[in-house]
Design goal:
By secondary structure, the protein is of the alpha/beta class. The chain is 30% helix and 19% strand. Strand 2 and strand 3 form a beta hairpin. Bound molecules: adenosine monophosphate (AMP) and magnesium ion (MG).
Length: 330
């Protein structure tokens, strides 16, 4: 398939592809999304084939106006309104009762739909031009890390989509926080850069009451949680302190290292080290570093594990999945 590369200001052209049933990759503040009209089931089906995404993993619908919201959802619980007022537009997806007009494929047959109003001005302009909700998961092949730069998005989706809208590097760099509601109570289904602590403060509840523990069997509340995710080609290993790094030995293999507010005394040949000064820059740079390490042929990536609070919770979540669930000893 021929993929049109569209300049930043060509949001009109990008939107016109969506309205014609096309697939368009577009930038947001979380990660690049792979969009199709949420009201066109054929176009939405193409999202699943472009990504190789399992059909029981529903999509997040992106909106940029109250009018677009109403077309997508049913009745909105009061607690969701509180979160919208505090965090929209922004990196927060809410699981709400669906509007019956919405095709089944978007919600994978569930009675709820995930909705997000992005903060990125470019994304908002694009969505308003589309004139309707745009269903969009991250623009990566299923299982791989989400693209946070135009180059990554292009690398993943060229030839699989009708258009790719150029944009800035994603400001946040991690997928949105997902919040669902059960009996009027909010639960975090996926941590993200709207933190659990921020949500708890706005809702005047304890942090623990928001933490969702995945059931060990049965249908997970958020179907995407059961799939492998965020994995680069290199093997990811986690460590807490630099002292745990294996002996800084020279090695025939290329090794990538991600550091959080720390430094190495010595850098062996074949090691590429990226130092992040804080959690925010780590979140922003994580997937782009995975991409770069894969590109230069690293076979192993050592990534420093953050403290699990604030933004560290979301980072720890993605790093653990990238490392196939193996967390470093305390
Ligand atoms: P992605 O956009 O690739 O980050 O994937 C969207 C995430 O939102 C996946 O983990 C989905 O399982 C989750 N999601 C989408 N719709 C729903 C829903 N109705 N209920 C629960 N989780 C959802
Ligand atoms: Mg994704």
């Amino acid at each position: 398939m021929k993929t049109q590369i569209l300049k930043k200001e060509q949001t009109k052209e990008a939107a016109s592809l969506i309205r014609k049933g096309g697939l368009v990759v577009f930038p947001t503040e979380t990660v690049y999304g792979l969009g199709a009209s949420a009201f066109n089931p054929t176009a939405c089906a193409r999202i699943f084939s472009a990504k190789g995404r399992p059909s029981d993993n529903p999509l997040i619908v992106h909106i940029a106006s109250e009018e677009q919201l109403v077309q997508v959802v049913g009745e909105v619980p009061e607690v969701a309104r509180v979160l919208m007022a505090a965090f929209w537009p922004g990196p927060l997806s809410l699981i709400l009762p669906r509007n019956n007009e919405l095709p089944e494929i978007v919600t994978a047959g569930q009675s709820t739909v995930a909705v997000r109003w992005p903060r990125s001005a470019q994304a908002q302009g694009f969505l308003l031009e589309c004139g309707q909700g745009v269903a969009a998961p991250s623009a990566n092949v299923s299982g791989a890390p989400s693209p946070t730069t135009f180059d990554m998005a292009k690398g993943a989706m060229l030839g699989r989509v009708d258009g790719i809208l150029m944009g800035e590097d994603a400001e946040e760099g991690l997928e949105s926080t997902i919040v669902g509601f059960e009996d009027g109570k909010a639960r975090v289904l996926r941590p993200g850069s709207v933190t659990i602590e921020q949500l708890a403060k706005v809702l005047s509840v304890k942090v623990e009451s928001l933490v969702y523990l995945a059931p060990t069997e049965g249908r997970p509340l958020s179907p995407g949680l059961k799939y492998a995710h965020y994995k680069p080609a290199a093997e990811v290993r986690l460590f807490r302190s630099v002292a745990e790094l294996p002996l800084l030995a020279e090695s025939a293999e290329k090794v990538g290292v991600l550091l959080l507010a720390s430094a190495l005394n010595r850098q062996p040949e074949g090691w590429t080290v990226v130092q992040f000064k804080d959690l925010k820059s780590y979140a922003k740079g994580l997937y782009a570093s995975f991409f770069d390490f894969d590109r230069i042929g690293c076979t192993v990536i050592w990534a420093q594990f953050p403290p699990a609070e604030g933004l560290g919770t979301a980072l720890a979540n993605r790093l653990t999945k990238a490392a196939s669930g193996v967390t470093p000893a305390k």
